[in-house]
Write a structure and sequence with these properties.
The protein is an alpha+beta fold. The chain has 4 domains: 33 residues; 255 residues, Beta-galactosidase, Chain A, domain 5 (Distorted Sandwich); 318 residues, TIM Barrel (Alpha-Beta Barrel), CATH 3.20.20.70; 84 residues, Immunoglobulin-like. It contains 16 helices and 44 strands. The chain has a 9-stranded antiparallel β-sheet, covered by helices on one side. Strands 5, 6, 13, 16, 17, 20, 21 and 22 form an 8-stranded antiparallel β-sheet that branches. A 7-stranded parallel β-sheet has the order 34-33-30-26-25-24-35. The protein is globular.
């Protein structure tokens, strides 16, 4: 090769290199120039030209939770394939800014180099203290259905040290290390997730999740993610770990997943999802959710006797396999006497009908051998002498497949059907003395759809039955949560599930509530499980858990919805009594006395019996504060020792502060209550309360002591 040719080749190479460099520079410059920024005094959010979340910043602290990751994922079905994934990395948006919002639009989507006639539009709106993420889908692709939209996503979420995860699973959970918790639960049996791609903490409102939000909470700042959805549709709370460049599942992604079920020719919109980088502790995040809840909340004040209710005895008269634990005549005898021994004047009978608990629903016919309706009415009347109260149990959703109601045909008509049209079954495998019944021969139920007017009439009939017998409340088991299953509509091109279960249950409870109000405003309604929308239409809730486990955080629900009356649960024998009973006082929970899972009474657990008697005396003494007062969590005071747990309750110009500790032998703590003066205290145990100086009190607490201190406004 001669020199002339060599020079020519070098010139061509240099020219191509310059062109490539210019192209790269233009692309890079274009990307930088296309970053759209919204900012106010609290929050900054920015989106780049590819639709990635570049910044989500708390301007008071400087913390940026974003790291330039995509905002969304979408999944659709065809007839021959389900859950086809579309990623933003394969699609090019138009991104522009319009005053206080950023618009990200896709006029079509691309998958496997093929065009999909689906339009996707996002609007990111900066409000005073939060960012609203709106979305719209227009499906113009024949024979498809858009099943799921994951948006917004905060990928590779940058959490500062000390941020903990708060969820409202079973009323509240607090996980000190969010990533560790996701890893702990994500790759466990039954191994059904594609865990080679991501690890996930399963969490869906309203399936065992009481509020439609979750929080990464530090002591002075945090990140709130919530769906302020006034339709109360199912919402998945996205908590995933993706692998980093070294293959470690360490990149946290947080977001919200909705289920449009948008078919060809349809559009779907959502403006409910909000994200808020906030300053302060977790109470600030709670107030964000409560401020939204106030736009729909219509909770009535519970009857006075419910407000003053300290405890109830939950008992099963006859079990589902025929064993009788209590007779009608016991209501005014042993049951009443044992309750009175601990200051409890409320009984909560299950299995009072002839066929027994979880048997024959909804055929609640009284036991003819014990006098039928007259005998049961007399038993209730006898118990109610001297002020006793009766909460009468019914199941709000289960239909026994062996019941006359099911066999007659109406039960089959009103029950859930799955995506093939088959009935959805549930089983409650209570055990007898052997093993065969519990494992092989349990009863089978179908689940009633509360939208159906025929089932709504059943719920009203249950209320009428409770009123007829002279009970003081009707209780609907399992009406406070959304099931993992639901009713499907099979009359369209694709089967579509009902994703508004909790709205349907809440509306049914509202119907019952209004019906009862016309008959007796002092008659109460109760349900099992806390879910925010349903709870506004009832007077008390039988909680699903005791809230005393290492990650349990009922504090969220008690603080966010302090007017909701909740019970504890799970104290069934003489194990760990003082700590758990003290916890109920600390959090303002009513005692659910359920000895041996409702098969016996508290006189068979003498430690529990003796201690609850003392505690209920304290509740009686300070009823106006501990039971009728507003739960304020840790607000209104400070402590100088984190080992001690303390919570406040206020009523008018008074404050009660409950203190206890169960982690060490003896501790000293100084309590400061600004703007209040100390009045008195009551001690259960060997604690000591010293004299106060400058709104400060010194308290010495032994393990499992309980102290209730009363303060009054003023100096």
């Amino acid at each position: 090769m001669n020199c002339k040719n060599t020079i020519m080749i070098l010139k061509i190479f240099r020219y191509k290199f310059i062109v490539l460099l210019v192209f790269i520079t233009i692309v890079s410059f274009r990307g930088v120039c296309q970053v759209q920024i919204l900012k106010n005094q609290n929050i900054e959010i920015s989106i780049d030209g590819e639709g990635n979340l570049v910044s989500l910043k708390n301007l008071h602290t400087g913390q940026n939770y974003a790291s330039g990751k995509p905002l969304w994922r979408l999944y659709f079905d065809r007839k021959n394939r389900k859950e086809i994934e579309i990623l933003p990395t394969c699609n090019e948006p138009e991104v522009r800014k319009d005053e206080n919002e950023i618009l990200v639009n896709y006029d079509h989507l691309v998958i496997d180099n093929q065009m999909l006639h689906v339009e996707l539009s996002f609007s990111i709106i900066l409000e005073e203290n939060q960012v609203r993420f709106c979305s719209e889908i227009a499906n113009n692709e024949l024979h498809t259905i858009v099943r799921e939209l994951q948006y917004p996503l905060v990928g590779n979420c940058q959490l500062p040290a000390g941020h903990q995860l708060i969820t409202v699973f079973r009323g509240g959970q607090l996980y000190p290390d969010p990533k560790a918790q996701i890893l702990k639960v994500s790759n466990t049996p039954p191994y059904m997730a594609p865990s080679q791609y991501y690890r996930q903490l399963d969490l869906k409102y309203p399936e065992q999740v009481g509020s439609n939000c979750f929080v990464f909470a530090g002591k002075e700042q945090g990140l709130y993610i919530g769906s302020h959805d006034s339709t109360f549709q199912d919402t998945w709370h996205g908590l995933r770990l993706y692998p980093d460049k070294n293959g470690r599942f360490d990149e946290l992604e947080a977001g919200l997943y909705k289920y449009p079920n948008c078919m060809a020719g349809q559009t779907w919109e959502c403006d409910a999802n909000v994200v808020a980088p906030y300053s302060g502790d977790w109470h600030h995040a709670s107030k964000i959710y409560r401020n939204w809840a106030n736009t729909w909340w219509e909770h009535r004040e519970a009857p006075l006797w419910v407000q003053k209710m300290k405890s109830w005895q939950r008992i099963i008269l006859r079990h589902q396999y025929g064993e009788t634990f209590f007779r009608y005549s016991d209501m005014g005898g042993r049951i009443k006497d044992v309750g009175e021994s601990v200051g409890c004047d409320v009984v909560f009978p299950f299995g009072w009908w002839e066929s027994g608990m979880d048997n024959g629903n909804p055929g609640y016919e009284t036991d003819r051998a014990q006098g039928g309706d007259e005998g049961w009415g007399k038993a209730i009347s006898t118990y109610k002498k001297d002020g006793g109260k009766v909460l009468l149990y019914f199941n709000g959703k289960l239909i026994d497949r062996e019941s006359e109601y099911y066999k007659s045909g109406e039960g089959k008509e009103v029950c859930y059907k799955d995506n093939t049209g088959a009935e959805i079954n549930e089983w409650y495998k209570f055990k007898g003395m052997g093993t065969f019944t519990g494992y092989f021969n349990s009863r089978t139920f179908v689940v009633a759809d509360t939208r159906n007017p025929k089932w709504q009439k059943q719920l009203l009939d249950m209320a009428d039955k409770a009123l007829h017998f002279g009970a003081d409340a009707v209780f609907y088991d399992q009406l406070g949560r959304g099931e993992s299953t639901t009713n499907w509509d099979l009359n369209r091109e694709f089967p579509v599930p009902n994703t508004r279960i909790i709205a349907d249950k809440g509306n049914a409870l509202k119907l019952v509530h209004n019906y009862i109000d016309k008959k007796d405003k002092d008659f109460a309604i109760g349900i099992e499980w806390f879910t925010d929308f349903a709870s506004q239409y009832v007077d008390f809730i039988h909680n699903i858990y005791g809230a005393t486990g290492p990650t349990d955080f009922i504090d969220w629900t008690r603080y966010t919805f302090p007017e909701v009356i909740l019970s504890d649960r799970e104290i069934r024998d003489d194990t760990d009594i003082k700590r758990r009973v003290n916890h109920a006082v600390l959090k303002g929970l009513r005692n659910d006395i359920e000895i041996y899972r409702c098969r016996d009474l508290i006189d068979k657990t003498p430690v529990y019996q003796q201690y609850l008697a003392k505690i209920n005396e304290v509740k009686d003494k300070y009823c106006a504060l501990l039971l009728q007062g507003k739960y304020c969590d840790t607000e209104g005071f400070t402590l100088d020792n984190e080992v001690v747990e303390a919570r406040s309750f206020i009523q008018d110009d008074q404050m009660a502060i409950v203190l206890t500790q169960s982690t060490t032998g003896t501790v000293s703590v100084r309590l400061t209550v600004p703007g209040y003066r100390y009045v008195e205290s009551t001690i259960v145990g060997g604690a000591e309360v010293g004299s106060g100086v400058d709104n400060q009190q010194k308290i010495i607490l032994n393990s499992d002591d309980l102290v209730v201190m009363i303060f009054k406004k003023g100096n």
